[in-house]
Protein: Membrane protein
Organism: Paenibacillus darwinianus
Amino acid sequence: MQDIGALILRTILTYFVVFFVMRMMGKREIGKLSVFDLVISVMIAEIAVFVIEDTDRHPFHSYVPMVTLMIIQIGISLIIMRFRGLRMMFDGKPTIVIAKGKLNREAMRKQRYNLDDLMLQLRENKIASIGDVEFAILETSGKLSVIKKETPIRLSRPATYASYASLLDDHRIDEEKEPIFPPKFRFEMLPIPLIMDGKVQDDNLEKLGKNRFWLKNELQQKGSAEFKEVFLCTIDHNGKLFIDYARKPNGQS
């Protein structure tokens, strides 16, 4: 019974020590975990576990390293606030993965950031098509910041409700045309990848009720003859294709 009471006391004491250390390290630690922050957090968590498990060791033998790590984190944070070069070394720097609607595949390769990661984070940002993105920046925390392209609507005459509504109608899908998506199609995956890394996503084509012949015909209209020429091809909710080429199509300079 005495051992259980001592264990509970160590746990409570460790909780307050860890809480104090994390609180002193500031909101930056909670809001954004850079590699530097993550290393410190993992080390503190591991030390806290040792305090509770190893009852033969005096708790202060572990609390001292925790406080030491806190001092290191605060000290380095104050230093890198003044010197941007050191800040880039510890935190890294943001990476532009989409610029003016074009994928930066070299930057993605260096960051080991694949297309599935990109599609996931674009959906989280409610982006229906990569073509709608002016810039997408992979932050040092791993978050994708997206800047959409501006699409201002200009009227050639003074705006009225009727003229504005008419202009909007020009941008709507013609309901008389054959719909791209089946009636009960679910749109959670937008934008929908049709080709990734030069490989056709047959399961997505099947969900759309389309086949490779339809896709090849669409690509040929865009100037691409082969699937392997396409690095990424997606379709948005309007049925608009976005194509990023792995290499330039034949006949294009």
User: Anything to note?
Assistant: The domain at 95-148 is CATH 3.30.240.20 (CRO Repressor). DSSP finds ten helices and eight strands in the chain.
